[in-house]
Amino acid sequence: MSPIAMTAVALLASAAMRQAADPAPPMSAADQIIGASPAGDWRAIDPENTLYLDLPGGRVIIELAPAFAPLHVANIKRLVRQGYFDGLAVVRAQDNYVVQWADSDGKRSLGGAAATLPPEFTAAFDAALPFTPLPDVDTYAPQVGFTDGFPVARDPAAGQTWLTHCYGMVGVGRDNAVESGSGAELYAVIGQAPRLLDRNVALVGHVVQEIDILSVMPRGKGALGFYQTPAERVAIHSIKVAADLPPAQRVPLSALKTDSPTFAALLQARRFRHDDWYKVPAGRVDVCNVPLPVRVGRG
Amino acid sequence: MSPIAMTAVALLASAAMRQAADPAPPMSAADQIIGASPAGDWRAIDPENTLYLDLPGGRVIIELAPAFAPLHVANIKRLVRQGYFDGLAVVRAQDNYVVQWADSDGKRSLGGAAATLPPEFTAAFDAALPFTPLPDVDTYAPQVGFTDGFPVARDPAAGQTWLTHCYGMVGVGRDNAVESGSGAELYAVIGQAPRLLDRNVALVGHVVQEIDILSVMPRGKGALGFYQTPAERVAIHSIKVAADLPPAQRVPLSALKTDSPTFAALLQARRFRHDDWYKVPAGRVDVCNVPLPVRVGRG
Fold this sequence. Notes:
CATH class of the domain at 49-105 and 117-246 in chain A: Mainly Beta
Oligomer: homodimer
Helix content of chain A: 10-25%
Radius of gyration of chain A: 19 Å
Low-confidence stretches of chain A: 1-11, 15-23
Strand content of chain A: 15-25%
């Protein structure tokens, strides 16, 4: 299931409903809108910006965001292509916060990758980037919306835009120095959007498939959710760039374009969700409460 | 770990930091504020409004909110005291949404408990209830803040107040009819706050200890995250009201009073978090990004 699932806010259907004669839940407005979407409202996710994180529980798929953190994305791909992550492990799982993977024993060489990078915590405001604004007020930023499938905040007065820490976002762990995040240590958000981190750390992508492999990992009992013993860690079989696999071995994924009419219709249906179950439409929605529809298949 | 953990937004500390000579992370401003708090800023959590949900993974502790949903809380306690939940199971785990427990086979009698209840999705605005407002704008409600430890929204113009669907909140599953939620089917939020549910369903409490026992449960592969076979369900050993156990068998818990000077100081430290790691303070905070400090021990 996507992190940002196809039907993220489903009914709080009772078990009794599930026991009814027709076991299929009624098709939601969102499902109907997606079902009627033209092929042109979808984009193929670029294999060159796709990572396969292979774990004992299966394959987590991450889409990278080079438009927002080009140096970090390039460095991560350099590390991946050196096999840097293969045989490392998830070393931290903090409830309602993040899972994190790294070379905890500090034995790997970064090889040709950089050890430090300019921060890239925000990007320069760029009017040329597509941006689908949300009409609703946000606690943390003057403007929020979506760019190329990613949740984004903007502050035109400050000339800045940045990715927001929503569920499933992937970022770069760092030490106190702002340039200390190389991409050798990555985390994924598995809880309430920790928006206080926005503009303090580089976000580089989001999980588009199977985040539950990460989100169900046993929480670490050490400080900050670090596992206390190496035996608790979850081994990483490998991380690969999808483009480096033969086409037949890739998972073809498509995401709904966030500047498409279908996405606009979904946003409205979500803001004013009102059906047999929902009695009081909120009339608004938070940027981290909007799922990105992702499906297997091209275009 | 509390859902609403003592140090909910911790550093994205690197593993390298953890490997340093002093394994203890530096004490955060929040830890220092809590460490200096007077005993009078804490309240004992009432055993009469505390549920022990005993699962194979351990004990989840829930504090009930009778001020907001008195009829539902009373009915749930009636069910608990009949042993209604003992031997039932968690039947649903939907990623980034909820876990839910119920009598999926529909074989239990509700006994002396009501099968339907008035909605209690909102409560009448009551100026006598303590309320610590958040100064920051909220996407979903005119006012947000805290009442008796719970995250709360208010709409004075509509004369309403309601609990908000933050991580760890516990609510009552229902069918389409608004009075169909008896409390025999309960859910806990384990993902991004599904605030679209606010005012559509009765919230009755929050998890104050060990929510990770719920949040790591394997996600169901059926529609809405329901488990597809009985074998996947997670058995409930029992649910008990803490007050029904001998005092020596209870877990004494205290929560920080949300109308205390210590909580006010924590809020400010969180809104303007700025330390060796945090470079850009947000200057604001979302009602679902504020942890409730809970500790073992009385007062």
